[in-house]
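[Meeting: bench + compute handoff]

Bench side (C.D.) handed over the final construct sequence. Compute side (W.E.) agreed to return the predicted structure before the next meeting so the bench team could plan truncations. Sequence as handed over:
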Amino acid sequence: MTRQFVYAFIAASALAGAGCRQADGPLPPVTSSVSNELGDIGKDLWNVGNDNADGPKDLSDDLSHYAQGSNGGEAAAKQLSQRVTSAIAGKKFKLAQSAPLARTCWEIVAARQLSEKQVDGLKNDLKSQLMSLGATDQQAQSAADQVGPVQQAVTARHRRWYELL
């Protein structure tokens, strides 16, 4: 009887632990002012791609704005901006092509309650979007590697002990 109890306990514990992953958090809402700012970020990206001298600074300013007040978030967002700039500098693309990348960059710095699964999704999105604009795999991966540090700095909800399983 004792072994059956131990096996039942182990099985129940495994099932309970499997259900304790971190829940997905809400994405920040897109208000009318955010829509305008997404357009600005898209123009910044397009300017970077067209080697406009103001593009990198404008992109850095627009992205780091969303990380203000967080512990190290502004510096992490500026680093993200630099890596994105390195990836797409000199790549000619249409303004409309920058919209998905602008939204992803905004979500990376503006979201405050994302799960690890959502952060991984943003990494993959960023990498594929950069590559679609002409970045190399290495450049795109470098930018994607900065997503975790940005989210770590700006998040308002860290994993709880029961979500560590």
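W.E. noted at the follow-up: The chain has one domain: 29-163. C.D. will use this when planning the next construct.
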